[in-house]
């Protein structure tokens, strides 16, 4: 049976009579765990009158909280409101507002607020905090904005945390940044003083909206109004400057925060290092990396890898090697990305022997090289005719249980067939085929292709021999 929702109090009363509704009957019974439940009132239950008590506000609050249906909770709330000398607790209003909000009955929330106001209950900031949270979760920025003015209607001065949360909701929706800015500018007129978080929310929003100049002006306003910026304030602007490729402005902000005693966070350093590397200011990037520890922020793997990548991109693999050595000295262990980037940089500069050395080192530390790493080394050695070195790379990778790319096989096989007098290479080939056939399907397919290729090569050689004998 579908329950018919009833919203006004008079309708609830008509619905609950005669002679005594299931709702009121439920309210009258004790909530104890006894098998036989006794009515809380006796004579008045059989002949209910307008003066009947329905229990304490705490009991009604628990009953409202126990309802899974928001509309039923609202009916209980309304019915209790009609009883003489009954006054809901503050928690009952909060619980019902949350239930209605999660059920998306937003129009009924206004009704509850009106009853709360007329009941004479003291309005607290917690009620409006819950209300803003409901509208934020429902993605209703206009409702969240109206909550600010609803507070003023209740003669309640919004707190900075209310302002900040409303601003966060507004800036998270496209097209509401200007309304957020207007609310910010009018807040002081309503005796709401913006704090550091307020400015951070707006600066972040304007930076992401590509309005760096407005964000920087807000930063200046902070200082004028004696609002102390924090590490996040500086980081937001540093990221904004770097996003606009204005790394010099970002470095000035870093110096300013250091001079004022702030310790930049890791993300600020990561942003600066990445920006300096992209601008090929590698000397400044390395100097900044060295300064980090002195300024109270130990470089982590992300910072080191950023510098290694920057040097490798600019063809300075030997400098990248030095950075990797510094990592170990400073107690930061290289990871898979560190080795892969460095080996790629070494191969790009033709330093394949050094690359092979780091390949063996990374495998010895338990890292599995990506097939692109082994492919670069094999390709490099084969291009210089160093077949045995290329075979050594393949052997090291296969012993570690890794898969070789088909391109790698094609390169190594063509070199082997040119140098097939070498007993060592023949033996390696036989071992490789055995290992591959025992692997997964992909590797077996490669092994079968390898066998077919070698068979065709052998038939071609025999045919050439027979042709030469025929002409003798």
TrEMBL record:
Does the keyword section mention Repeat? Answer: yes
Query: Pfam families attached here?
Result: PPR, PPR_1, PPR_2
PANTHER family hit by this protein: PENTACOTRIPEPTIDE-REPEAT REGION OF PRORP DOMAIN-CONTAINING PROTEIN (PTHR47933:SF48), PENTATRICOPEPTIDE REPEAT-CONTAINING PROTEIN 1, MITOCHONDRIAL (PTHR47933)
Tell me where the PPR repeats sit in this chain.
Answer: 124-158, 195-229, 230-264, 265-299, 300-334, 335-369
Give yes or no: UniProt keyword Transmembrane. Answer: no
Q: Which UniProt keywords apply?
A: Repeat
Family per record: Belongs to the PPR family. P subfamily.
- Which InterPro entries has this protein been placed in? Mito_RNA-Proc/Resp, PPR_rpt, TPR-like_helical_dom_sf
Coiled-coil ranges from the UniProt annotation: none
Q: What is this protein called?
A: Pentatricopeptide repeat-containing protein
């Amino acid at each position: 049976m579908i329950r018919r929702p009833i919203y006004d109090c008079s309708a609830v009363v008509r619905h609950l009579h005669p002679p005594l509704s299931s709702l009121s009957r439920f309210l009258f019974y004790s909530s104890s765990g006894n098998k036989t439940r006794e009515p809380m009132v006796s004579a008045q239950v059989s002949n209910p009158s307008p003066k009947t008590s329905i229990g304490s506000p705490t009991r009604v609050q628990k009953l409202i909280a126990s309802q899974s249906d928001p509309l039923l909770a609202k009916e209980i709330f309304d019915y209790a409101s009609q009883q003489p000398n009954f006054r809901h607790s503050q928690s009952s209003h909060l619980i019902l507002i949350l239930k209605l909000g999660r059920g998306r009955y937003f129009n009924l929330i206004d009704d509850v607020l009106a009853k709360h106001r007329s009941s004479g209950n003291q309005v607290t900031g917690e009620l409006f905090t819950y209300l803003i949270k409901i509208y934020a979760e429902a993605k209703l920025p206009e409702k969240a904005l109206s909550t600010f003015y609803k507070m003023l209607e209740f003669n309640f001065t919004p707190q900075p945390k209310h302002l900040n949360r409303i601003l966060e909701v507004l800036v998270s929706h496209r097209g509401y940044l200007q309304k957020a800015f207007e609310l910010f500018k009018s807040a002081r007129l309503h005796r709401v003083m913006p704090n550091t978080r307020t400015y951070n929310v707006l600066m972040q929003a304007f930076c992401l909206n590509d309005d760096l100049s407005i964000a920087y002006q807000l930063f200046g306003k902070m200082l004028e109004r004696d609002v102390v910026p924090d590490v996040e304030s500086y980081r937001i602007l540093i990221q904004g400057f770097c996003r606009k490729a204005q790394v010099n402005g970002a470095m000035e902000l870093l110096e300013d925060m250091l001079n004022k005693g702030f310790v930049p966070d890791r993300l600020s350093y990561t942003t600066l290092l990445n920006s300096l590397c992209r601008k090929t200011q590698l000397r400044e990037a390395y100097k900044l990396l060295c300064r980090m520890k002195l300024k109270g922020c130990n470089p982590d793997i992300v910072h080191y890898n950023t510098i290694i990548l920057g040097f490798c991109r600019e063809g300075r693999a030997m400098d990248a090697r030095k950075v990797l050595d510094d990592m170990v000295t400073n107690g930061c262990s290289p990871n898979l990305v560190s080795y892969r980037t460095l080996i790629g940089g070494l191969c790009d500069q033709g330093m394949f022997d050094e690359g092979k050395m780091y390949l063996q080192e990374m495998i010895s530390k338990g890292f599995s090289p990506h097939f692109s790493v082994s492919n670069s080394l094999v390709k490099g050695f084969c291009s210089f005719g160093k077949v045995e070195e290329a075979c050594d790379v393949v052997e090291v990778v296969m012993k570690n249980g890794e898969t070789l790319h088909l391109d790698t096989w094609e390169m190594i096989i063509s070199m082997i067939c040119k140098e097939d007098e070498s007993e060592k290479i023949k033996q390696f080939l036989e071992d490789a085929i055995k290992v591959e056939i025992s692997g997964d399907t992909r590797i077996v397919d490669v092994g079968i292709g390898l066998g077919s290729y070698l068979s065709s090569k052998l038939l071609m050689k025999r045919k050439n021999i027979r042709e030469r004998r025929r002409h003798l």
